[in-house]
Amino acid sequence: MEHKQHFPPPAFLRCFLCSKLYADPKMLPCLHSFCKLCIPEEHCSKKILTCPLCRESFDISQKEVPRNIYLENRVNLYQEQSKHFIDPSCIFCKLNAQGNKEAVRQCITCLDLLCKVCSERHTSTTLTIDHQVIPITEIKSGKYDDAILLVKYKTYCQKHSDEEVWYFCKTCNSLICSVCIIKDHKGHDVDRVADLIKEKESETRKLCQELKNKTSELKQCRVSLTSKRNELKKWEEKKIAEIKKLCSEAVSKIERGKNQILNDLDNYLKQKSRDLGKGINNITAQCSNISDSVQYVEHVLNGMSAQKIFLFGELQGRLENLDKKIKESIPFTDFSEETENIRIMVTEPKLEMTLDKPEAIHEQTSENSAKDCSISTAAVDDVNDNSSDIFYVCDKAVQTSDADFESFTEINNDQKRNYSLELIISHDLRTPSDKHPSYFTSVAWINENQFVAVDAGNAKVKICSFPLGTILNSTQVTKPLAVSAWKDGISCLTQENKMIIFSSELCPQNTLQNISSLCPSLPSSISSQWIENTTIVTKVNNIVLKLPLKYFPPNPLSVFFRYACSLPNGFYALSDMSNNCVYLVDASGSIFKALRCNPEPISFDKFYNIFIADFQNSSMKVFDLKGNHLADLLLKHRPRSISILHDKLIVAAEFGSHVFVYDIIYR
């Protein structure tokens, strides 16, 4: 039966940090809640707590954070209902010894589980005629949870456990019962709980209404800003067209000049070539004449005796004549000097932009004419103890090596494909040294033969072989959360928003603070990438590149990128936990598409399609870079983390010590 099946808890009953049901939930002043053990302990002495979700800081220690009683009760209710609804039976039939009849409804007034017959009788007695009887299928939807809480979790006096509290002592700031008023609170300022709740509810609802009214003002402001942004976009398009036109005209002029210069050069060199040809032919003829004459003279000199005396005059005359012609015909012009004096010069065209207030643009950018790139330097005092140069990227960050692009030659996003998954293997990654049950929060491919996984249960990062699943190396990390790999190493993000950079052998190299998310690309990438608030940071060798996002989310004042990935073409996909969507970002940092889906772990395949995990439905959604929804792929278990390399998908599941590897099949 449908109601016998396990039903998942609502997303708001899961801790944002550990993804489990809340355990001893604590509520920060920003109203965000976390498990007690998930709140960073390092802030206890400083008396400063920063919310991991909204990043707001509060002057409060961990011990002063109050319990979230509402969430405690909701979690307890869910756990109880999960047990009761596995095989619910009618309470009245049990009492009347009529066997375990299946319960199909529940009374939310007295919480009795009822079969079909008993549920119809339940509202037919004078005592229960006003009771509300609801089908269990609707109870499981959660919309009656608050009503059930009011009945199930009544508050009883701490001193008199059988007495329900009806009063609130303002003097002692405590809930008390009727007995307490007489014994311990004589003369105190006491109010009825119902009256006080009514008063406070009225005040709170009034505040809510005031905020709702101000929200309409904010929406009008947003409309105005959106209009201005659209105007700015039109102005930008106009200026871009103007720039392109000017550049096109300049290129046309250069092309015309090129053709003219080539023609002039051709004419000049043709004449020089003809002159040189004449000289060559003349010298060739002279050499032939000299050779013939000298050969004849030598024959005469060797073959005759006294009679040759009569030939000397003619012979010498011929030789002297040839010598004279040689002196007259040898060209003495040094053509190499003439050609070397020809210089080809380019008078460089210069495109400039001027503003009424030039400092407005030069505050963030400065001209760098020595390099043919669009990266401008900016003064930065310190970036997490990184002594390398810092840049703000204006166009495109360094992504991957050329070899990475060669492995993506079969990209053709216009081609329609059908996707399916085939589970090929699962690996149990427990080791004898593990002291606690393993559960994995993140996985990432290192190469075709290795992957790295975060065992949060044992606070370890483990490198494993594929397909054998052998643990090759591991290291201890405090509160590890996520992991990524690139050509020269491995990065691990912790729950305290620290990023530890390891070598390929898991030797720690550096630690950076205030990191929002890792931003993995191909494992062969020459750069490591991560997110700092709303900035994508890329580190290549000792150079750090920063790409500030030009984002326009529904709530631009509150964004938190929990998961991300970097595509080799310079595009990005970012999961925004605050606005509950996934953004597609181009190489300039502009968000060009918002995907309305749960902001969960992301990866990409060899066709640059985006895979987004769907934890709630044990599946993945597939989108192309235009934001078109391509497929929904079912998984065996709920995915905590995904990573794709070529056609292999690796998944870290919700519970247990296994990771799962699938073949992605394209048709």
From TrEMBL:
<feature type="domain" description="RING-type">
    <location>
        <begin position="15"/>
        <end position="55"/>
    </location>
</feature>
<protein>
    <submittedName>
        <fullName>Probable E3 ubiquitin-protein ligase MID2 isoform X2</fullName>
    </submittedName>
</protein>
<keyword id="KW-0175">Coiled coil</keyword>
<dbReference type="InterPro" id="IPR017907">
    <property type="entry name" value="Znf_RING_CS"/>
</dbReference>
<feature type="domain" description="B box-type">
    <location>
        <begin position="152"/>
        <end position="193"/>
    </location>
</feature>
<dbReference type="GO" id="GO:0008270">
    <property type="term" value="F:zinc ion binding"/>
</dbReference>
<feature type="coiled-coil region">
    <location>
        <begin position="197"/>
        <end position="238"/>
    </location>
</feature>
<keyword id="KW-0479">Metal-binding</keyword>
<dbReference type="InterPro" id="IPR011042">
    <property type="entry name" value="6-blade_b-propeller_TolB-like"/>
</dbReference>
<dbReference type="InterPro" id="IPR001841">
    <property type="entry name" value="Znf_RING"/>
</dbReference>
<dbReference type="InterPro" id="IPR000315">
    <property type="entry name" value="Znf_B-box"/>
</dbReference>
<dbReference type="InterPro" id="IPR013083">
    <property type="entry name" value="Znf_RING/FYVE/PHD"/>
</dbReference>
<dbReference type="InterPro" id="IPR047153">
    <property type="entry name" value="TRIM45/56/19-like"/>
</dbReference>
<feature type="domain" description="B box-type">
    <location>
        <begin position="88"/>
        <end position="136"/>
    </location>
</feature>
<dbReference type="Pfam" id="PF00097">
    <property type="entry name" value="zf-C3HC4"/>
</dbReference>
<keyword id="KW-0862">Zinc</keyword>
<keyword id="KW-0863">Zinc-finger</keyword>
<dbReference type="InterPro" id="IPR018957">
    <property type="entry name" value="Znf_C3HC4_RING-type"/>
</dbReference>
<dbReference type="Pfam" id="PF00643">
    <property type="entry name" value="zf-B_box"/>
</dbReference>
